[in-house]
Amino acid sequence: MSDRKKVVLATRNQGKVKEFNRLFADYGWEGTSLAQYEGVPEVVEDGDTFEANALKKAIEISTYLQLPALGDDSGLEVDALDGRPGVYSARYAGEEATDEQNWRKLLHELEDVPMEQRTARFRCTLALVVPGEEPIIATGACEGLIAREPKGTNGFGYDPVFYIPELEKRMAELLPEEKNQISHRAKAMQKLLEVLK
Length: 197
Fold this sequence. Notes:
Blueprint: E1 6-9, H1 14-24, E2 30-33, H2 50-65, E3 69-78, H3 99-109, E4 119-129, E5 136-146, E6 162-164, E7 169-170, H4 176-182, H5 184-196
Parallel strand pairs: 1-2, 1-3
Antiparallel strand pairs: 3-4, 4-5, 5-6, 6-7
Helix pairs in contact: 4-5
């Protein structure tokens, strides 16, 4: 495993990089962001599933840098919206949309939906590509409800409106170490690491 201690995270999202490195800490791994490498081409996320996008990112980055790369694609699936925003979560309100614009659009669409029908889940698919080896893919999910209004200042994305009934809190109200116990990314990561062991 010593040759795999460093892995390039196929993202420039510093929120994700921080989250991954907290998850990696227990395993002696260190993730580096794409921002640390010159001239890495943008990967176009045009897959229609989280797995397709995660795998595409990992393959293209690993091939370009000749290093182990971890691609992730994650998003929010809302049952009342037939699984939307799904793979379009980050750009739900438009290509340049902020997190707040995205969750505001979501709340607007769910305005007339009663609480018990606001079931949703965060889903994350991870793809680890090590040059010369078969890709490893792992998926995790975190179930919850879409709250009627935002609360909390931690996290990013849809965290302020994602309510976890058993904790009676929004995702954005959790401390990073609490989030890492239950998040979709943490669950996908645990599965990935089990395979690697």
